[in-house]
Every structure is written in C-alpha cells, then in structure tokens.
Amino acid sequence: MAKRQNNESEDTQMNEIMKAPDMDFINIDFEFFDPQPIDFHAFKNLLKQLLGYDHTNINISALSDLILSQPLLGSTVKIDGNNSDPYAMLSVINLNSRREEPVVKELTSYVLSRIATVNPTMEKQVRELLSPESKAQVGLIINERLINMPVQVVPPMYNMLLEEMQWAIDANEPYNFTHYLLLSRSYVEVASKLDDEDEQPKKKGKKAGEQDLCYFHPEDEQFRQAALAIADYPFANQDFNPDMNRVFQDAGIKPQGESVLLTHDAFKSVVPQLLNVYSV
C-alpha cells in the first residue's frame, strides 16, 4: 500500500525534475510504498548491488524474505504504481533479537569479518554490542537504490523510518535501538594499468597510495560525520582490474564495502540534516 504521510514535504508523490540531453525537462512522480511480496526479485537485485562482489556470500533470497516479513517498517520508491518494480529500498533489521536466524548469522559474520580487516577496534566494539549478554539493540540499516536515482528521495525515506520505528516501539515491538550499523558501499579511483604499459607521462597528482574516497550514496557523508566508528573494506571476492571499470576516464573505479556505526541519538540527529541538505 502507499505510505501514510500527512506532511506535504513528505507526500507520497515527489516531483523530481530531470534535465534531458535536448535541454527539455522531464517530470517524474516518485511514489513511496511499504515493502510487499511483489518486490522480492527487485530486492534481490538491489541487495546484490549493495553487497557487490560478495553477494554470493549471503543468502540473498532469505535476506529479501526477511525484509518483506516487516511490511510496515521501511519503504520502497516506485514510478509506475504499486505493481511496478521499486527503484529504491530502505529497511532496518534487529541484529540482536534475530541473531539466531540463519541469514542474520550469515550476514553478521560476514560484516564482522570484513570490518576486522581494516578496523579491529570497531569489529570488537560491534561484536560486544551484538553479544547475548549485551543490553544493546543494534539495527542494521539496509539502503540501496538504482545508480541514477536522485538522492532527494532518501531523506523522506529515513524520516518515515524513524516514525515507523516509534510506532513499532509504541506497540511493544523490538525496534528500540541503541545503535545502528549502516551497510553501504563506496569507491576509490585506481590508476589504469594500460597507461603504465603504454608508458604515458604520469599526471601530477596525489602521492602514491593516496586515494580519494567517493560515495555511491551522497548521504553517507552526513552519517559518517556523526559516526562512532567507520570501516571501509575491500570485498572478499574482489579480483580487481582497474581497466574493467574504466569508462572514458583516466582511472578505474574500485568499489568497496562500507560500515558505519552510530548511536541512536546520532542517527536521529542526521535525518533532519538530510532533509535540509537534500531538499527537493
């Protein structure tokens, strides 16, 4: 069903004006919906995109089913009505209360193993928060969208998620989180090997080993600024060739995984910032 919204700034339809190559304008109505069974295959594709080279390490079908088992929590964004494929999704999974479910065990083990490769301190911190003895409640944020979707659809989704979690808490459901673990992805530019082979003159730039971190999700920058800990890690299954990801540019793009740990208060404070920074 369509999302429940009373605030005009978060209406179920958002007009996003996009400029076409001929300089005309195209009006697109983005509609927000609850997750529903018809979204299963689209969710699988979005989750594969989110997990990158490592999507084979996770039972994507089971993870999609888990997200769909929470139909009143989270959002999808569609263009052609309720029966069309979602272009974006947002959900949260309680890693503590669902720790015994196979796909949650699998996903938690994977994320912890990747964090450990670059930030052992964060891995220990997250592991302690997730232990059966811990009183913490950690929500795993799963947010993905098609690559050409405008970031402006994101703030209303997060704002609705906060409202829905509060409604769930009021109904004594287990969504009273103390922390959030944001699962995302980023990339760095890597010099082409072909340029080296052709012995082309080196461009002046960064020193060896220095790389600019770029975000597939621009909103990650705001979450990172409020983070308790951050891990940017290589995919476990990645056999990277920079020239495979090089299109009309001097450098290849190397995707990588990203995990951001936030307290509840920090997460809650970022959402209004997103509404201000990425307003329509």
UniProtKB/TrEMBL annotation:
Keywords: Nucleus, Protein transport, Transport. It comes from the Eukaryota. Pfam families: BCCIP (PF13862). GO terms for biological process: protein transport. This is Protein BCP1. Belongs to the BCP1 family. Involved in nuclear export, actin cytoskeleton organization and vesicular transport. GO terms for cellular component: nucleus. The keyword Lyase does not apply. It comes from Schizosaccharomyces octosporus (strain yFS286). InterPro entries: BCP1_family (IPR025602). It is found in: Nucleus.
